[in-house]
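Regression check, zinc ion case 495:
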Amino acid sequence: MINLAIYLRISVLEKENLSHTDDTINSQRNIIKSFIFGDPELKKANIEEYIDEGYSGSTTSRPGLDKLLLKVKQGKVNCIIVKDMSRFMRNYIEMGDYLENIFPFMGVRFIAINDGYDSSNEVQNGTELDIQFKNLLNDYYSRDISEKMTTALLVAKKQGKYTSGVPPYGYLKDPEDNYKLIVDGKVADNVRYIFQLIIEGHSLNETAKILNNEGVITARARRKEIKGYDSYATRHESTVEQTIWVAGMVRRIVNNEAYTGTFVFNKSTKSKLDGGKVIHHPEKDWVRVYDNHEPIVDKEIYDEANRILKSRKKNIKFKWGKSKYENSPLASFVRCNKCGYKIRFSKSTNGGKLTSINVYCHHCRMLEQEEKLPHHKDLEREVFEDLKSKFHIDKTEKEKLLAEQKELYDKNDQLLKKKRLEFENYKFGKISREDFMEIKNQIQDSEEENKKRIQAIDEELKQAGSIDSLTKDIVEKYIDRIYISGKGIERIEYQ
Ligand SMILES: [Zn+2]
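Current build output:
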């Protein structure tokens, strides 16, 4: 009696990309079953199935295979059929051991359909097997599953199809077409915000901190929301454990060209040998498909943010110039009056070039308590007027103040002289002590008053400047925070 075991395996990678591979569990089963039922002897056998889903060929932990090999040891299985040898084992030394030693010893017939291998056809003697084996192994590699996957993916990618398992933060797989990326409206603004923060001169760490402070949802948490479970928990174990933003996550976003609508592929491949180590390719080998999907940030913003990151890496002390891409000179200073979080000024493109700037509180939006905030131009105008009325001083005004100050210094000189004179009068008995004390006090009061005014003018001159336009420098010089609501500016905190 033939006790036949069918072994079926599908890896994590394949599981994610089921639509691009014909090697689903079902299709493996169908191929094997039709092979069995085409064989008069095999079709009479007892058939049992052993399945490993989500395990790679190179991992040692494969419960289905373990169970099968136990049955072999117990003598309960005497024939094994797989579609490809690589489904069974990836490590050819181990595979060879089974084929050359273990299976013949246990009297197990082994069939790998696509490899054209059937152990019952083998002549069990020295050199012949050796040659047979070499051919087999060459064949084995050329059929290697990861190569097949890579080829299939490359073809799909050349057609501009998104085939990597997980879309970047800010994108979703189109439910209509799994190959297509669509913008994830719920978090796309966060991506723009990250680029904005970098362009405003925040470091990766600062940016991560701001995102955490504002409760911005992370990529992992967003995936969990979409999928309803934490897909990273099993797949990436320790590497993407963070549910908070860290510098590396921010960098990965800023470095990802996908946000400009460009699809880059062939950046890396998984090694076909041992454990699928990732091989990174030089940039010259990358292939780009432009306008592959809807961009989230402008190319110019992407370039600017990456230029900043690069120059920062080169020179930590690099002093930030004012960026021409900054959305508003007020952008870093405005807070929501309701919740206190930083107000976002995010640029949106309209048909490529036309841009408008949206002013909104992300936090209130998430709580569905969003107010329609004033237009950024109105805010800028109001702040400009306020600064001008408080701090602007023109040249004649400045001269007038300086002249007034000089006059006060002169007055105090006169008062000092008068004080000395009165003191002499008192000493020589010309006036009484009481009279002298009274005069002296009067003089000193006047002196004090003049000194105060002199100091006030100093303050005014120090603070004032010519405020001709609203720049980030000007705002930074005078303002700490601006609180706004739907009604407009609620209050300004000055430096
Ligand atoms: Zn708010």
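Comparison notes: Residues 349 and 355 are 5 Å apart (CA to CA). The radius of gyration is 39 Å. No diff flagged against the previous build.
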